[in-house]
Write a structure and sequence with these properties.
267 residues, mainly alpha, 8 helices
Length: 267
């Protein structure tokens, strides 16, 4: 239920505020870090890391208890997810690299779990945190552009690494300078065009995921402003939002596979 005594704008602003920490004058300062580039969003980092650890523990536990006979429901569900990701990699990735499938599975499940936090009613965890003396708490890491951009940067670095590893420095340079027009006079134009295309990859990955989850979070906040009348609308939007949660994790995974597949191809 939305907090009483606050206007709608104040309520939304409060819920959009991260728990931040930064260093000023040799001291660590909490929640007074506006405009500080080196401020850390502690809540985003905490939930992202916690969900990552949960993912590793859960899949590791299922793997240790896996049987060759009739699997239980948990093992069957995990096998379906692994099979789905494996098929997606086989259909999209045209090179040979043992890293791609585990990376795709990790990204898909990690992003899915982070997105799934959006289904928790927006006041529950912040209210519990407030009782513990924590004034701000955002529980959906993917509504923080720093988290989505960090993942996209990781994919971008892998794309550059494999482009150079597979094609060599010369091959990678030729892609940037002799594509799409294979003529020395077009090198400046090609370089600008290909550089923009290269930089657009991490931007599109991060902003697409951030924008969709941020919008979903705002709608949940608007619904929460209805007070005790929020439950029917919250349930209806949550059912629809499940599709967005899964779809955004799938899109991030598939684009990662496509970008890494392009990095392994010789043009």
């Amino acid at each position: 239920m939305a907090e009483t005594g606050h206007s709608a704008g104040e309520y939304i602003s409060h819920h959009l505020q991260n728990l931040t920490v930064c260093k000023k004058g040799g001291e660590w300062i909490w929640n007074e870090c506006h405009g500080n580039f080196f401020a850390l969003n502690v809540d985003s980092m905490f939930f992202a890391i916690a969900l990552g650890v949960l993912l590793i523990w859960f899949f590791g536990r299922v793997a240790k208890k896996a049987t060759t006979g009739a699997p239980n429901r948990t093992q069957a569900a995990v096998e379906m997810i692994v099979g789905f990701v494996d098929q997606s990699v086989r259909e999209t990735f045209h090179g040979t690299n043992r890293v791609i499938a585990p990376l795709a599975l990790t990204l898909f499940m990690w992003i899915f779990l982070m997105n799934l936090m959006d289904l928790i009613p927006v006041d529950w965890l912040p209210w519990a945190a407030k009782q513990a003396g924590i004034p701000y708490l955002r529980v959906v890491p993917t509504t923080d552009v720093n988290v989505t951009f960090a993942m996209a940067i990781g994919v971008f670095i892998l794309t550059i690494y494999y482009s150079i590893k597979i094609k060599g420095v010369g091959g990678f340079t030729r892609e940037l300078t002799l594509t799409p027009f294979n003529h020395w006079a077009a090198i400046p134009f090609n370089f600008v065009l290909e550089s923009v295309s290269l930089v657009a990859k991490p931007l599109s990955l991060s902003l697409r995921l951030f924008g969709n989850l941020y919008a979903g979070e705002l709608i949940f906040m608007l619904i929460a402003l209805l007070g005790i009348y929020q439950l029917p609308l919250h349930f209806a939007w949550a059912v629809f939002h499940i599709l967005i949660i899964v779809l955004q994790a799938f899109i991030f995974m598939m684009l990662t596979i496509v970008y890494l597949s392009m990095a392994h191809e010789h043009h």
